[in-house]
Amino acid sequence: MLKPVPFGIIGFGWRAEAYLRIAKQLPHLFQIVGIVVRDPAKYEHAAEQWGVTLYSTPQELAKHCEFLVAAVSKTSMPHVLKEAALLDIPLLAETPPAFNDEGYQLVSSLIQSGARIQIAEQYLLQPHHQARTALIQSGSLGEVRHVQVSTAHGYHGISLIRQWLSVTDSSCQIVSRRFELPIQEVPHRGRAAQDRLETEIQDISIITFGDGKSAVLDFARSQYFSPIRHNRILIRGSKGEIRDNEVTRGLGANSYEDVTIRRMQDGLEGSLAPLSLRELRAGSECVFRNPYYPAQLSDEEIAIAEVLTRMTAYIASGESFYSLSEALIDVRLSLAIDESIATGHAVNVL
């Protein structure tokens, strides 16, 4: 039997806890050796709760790990990436690798350094998004030239757009606008919501790529947590389209079919099996099979587990799954969206 992969984490915030939960659910696959924090005394209680060892420096922890995961604030991330590159520490970095022009320039300089860095862009690996990607790659939708994504903000949404449109560079024109809307207070990371209104921010962007492909990115942050805000996906191909989980595709002259992407989920109603996703099906076709069944993981946790699995393969083979250069394209377009919102003008990205 293969031994679990030992890895460590830099940072002990909300995001780091996701990796701790996954390692606890999948101890045969992953082992968290320890966590790097600036002030060990501050995190002694949390470390005891999770049963992890605290370290003061990445260098010290890296000696005992296959790789480290950087789960730090976006302001700290560029400097953590630079340090890992200088020390030749294999690093899986949470998104975004940079959040402003200064950080973008700093991190861009690392691309040619040979740094062993991959980015934990998990949205592409969430089960329903993997299912949509599988349907596109099967060819049953024909050529996809337009998508509308309302499921994640900025660089996350852009990563999905580029994947589904098969766009590999950053050349495009972006027109973006920001709107403020009233919404019932949203629960957020464990905070209880009260029965009152607050303001949500909705950003809408039209993105036109050089080859005529196009996309709409429409998102409000409340969609991450609010039960009254739903995600929406539209993927239009020459032979069919996907609307959320509904698929319509042509079967030849004057012949069409409608199928639904359905969850095959254990642990519901009378099932005594663990609450775990088995697979997703579109009609009789399996479009996603959960490699971590029967672990009780959310879709987000399944995606993060897959990121860890691919990082393990990257360490062994050197085969990139989401490189720093790929992630920086997403960041660059996200910054262009912010610029268009701020100026009210179209932004051309070369």
Offer a few descriptive terms.
about 350 residues; alpha/beta; Rossmann fold; 11-stranded mixed β-sheet; about 30% helix
Give a verbal description of the structure:
It contains nine helices and 17 strands. The chain is of the alpha/beta class and 350 residues long. α4 packs parallel to α5 (101-108), α5 packs antiparallel against α9 and α7 crosses α9 (324-343). α5 (101-108) links the parallel β5 and β6. It has helices spanning 14-25, 44-50, 58-62, 77-87, 101-108, 127-137, 154-165, 299-317, 324-343, and strands at 5-10, 30-36, 53-55, 67-70, 91-93, 117-119, 144-150, 172-184, 197-209, 214-220, 232-237, 240-243, 246-252, 255-265, 277-282, 285-289, 347-349. The termini are far apart. The protein folds into two domains: 5-119, NAD(P)-binding Rossmann-like Domain (Rossmann fold, 3-Layer(aba) Sandwich), CATH 3.40.50; 126-295, Dihydrodipicolinate Reductase, domain 2 (2-Layer Sandwich), CATH 3.30.360. The chain is 30% helix and 31% strand. The mean pLDDT is 96.
